[in-house]
């Protein structure tokens, strides 16, 4: 394979989902260190990347583009799509690095083989293997996010407006964009939240506008006003600010799970339809609960088995005890 020449402008195209962006963070950090002589670092992707970029700890000023791919001397394509290769080729990027597939090999100047199987291997290692095939040094394989210093004050103000305190803050992320099969039942979350609120914890439910009914169901048993259904009421940046200050994030396999873990916040993740071997969060204070059913991991968007047995295998008492242990 041809050797890469040092770029003046380095362009990164992160994956398309929040969780995958976080899992790709160690690889992106290693690229930034490898090409520290580049004068500019650019990131291209979906508009919400602007909110995430300050947390990625890339160690330098980076500019985010989402309207069109900017020109660069060297681009690393983390998405596997034909479109990402086409856009960088059309933008005249001189060196285009990515995995083969999706009929895009002809558009890449450096074509890499898929040596790991995403059906079994961790996605984070899949992204890092791109660098290893190019003999780029990887000093740190774990996700290491950093919250901007001013975000603590912003989160504190949001909470204070609702009579909540970051000292007692628990965040709940009961949704999952991929589909309902990854979601722990709302009625089980509701029982857990009821009991945690009795312990004196302040609860904030995070999610999108479409997940707002789930948030309402999760908080239906909480009898105090020390709670907030923030689903659809925050930007992504505000959600990250709140997560950065929480004492615990209780969640399904989701993007916010990876954020909290990468920030070093205690993270309790409930797995069922997906496999922790592939997408477990990376962080120093992570606990995963996974008791697979015979059909697990199905990797389906919606459960096709009556009673969602993989999640039924995680009773409320088990999850509640794990929360209290992590909060002790």
Which stretches of 5+ consecutive residues score pLDDT under 50? none
Quick check: average pLDDT?
95
Structural class: alpha/beta
Report the span from N to C terminus.
53 Å
Strand order in space, largest sheet? 3-2-1-4-5-6
Share of residues in helices: 25-40%
CATH H-level name of the largest domain... which superfamily? Glycogen Phosphorylase B
Q: What is the N-to-C order of secondary-structure elements (H for helix, E for strand)?
A: EHHEHEEHEEHHEHEHEHEHEHEHH
General shape: globular
CATH topology of the largest domain: Rossmann fold
Rounded radius of gyration (Å) = 21 Å
CATH architecture of the largest domain: 3-Layer(aba) Sandwich
The tally of helices reads 13
Largest sheet: 6 strands, parallel
Our count of domains comes out at 2
Q: Hey, roughly how much beta strand do the residues contain?
A: 15-25%
- CATH C-level class of the largest domain: Alpha Beta
**Number of strand elements:** 12
Give your account of this protein's structure.
Helix 3 (49-52) links the parallel strand 2 (40-44) and strand 3 (63-65). The protein has two domains: 9-132, Glycogen Phosphorylase B (Rossmann fold, 3-Layer(aba) Sandwich); 153-327, Glycogen Phosphorylase B (Rossmann fold). It has helices at residues 18-23, 25-34, 49-52, 82-90, 123-132, 151-160, 186-198, 212-218, 236-243, 255-262, 276-279, 309-312, 316-327; strands at residues 9-13, 40-44, 63-65, 74-77, 95-99, 110-112, 169-173, 202-205, 227-229, 248-252, 267-271, 286-290. It starts with 8 loop residues before the first strand and ends with a helix. The strands form two sheets. A six-stranded parallel beta sheet has the order 3-2-1-4-5-6, covered by helices on one side. By secondary structure, it is α/β, with parallel strands linked by helices. It is 32% helix and 16% strand.
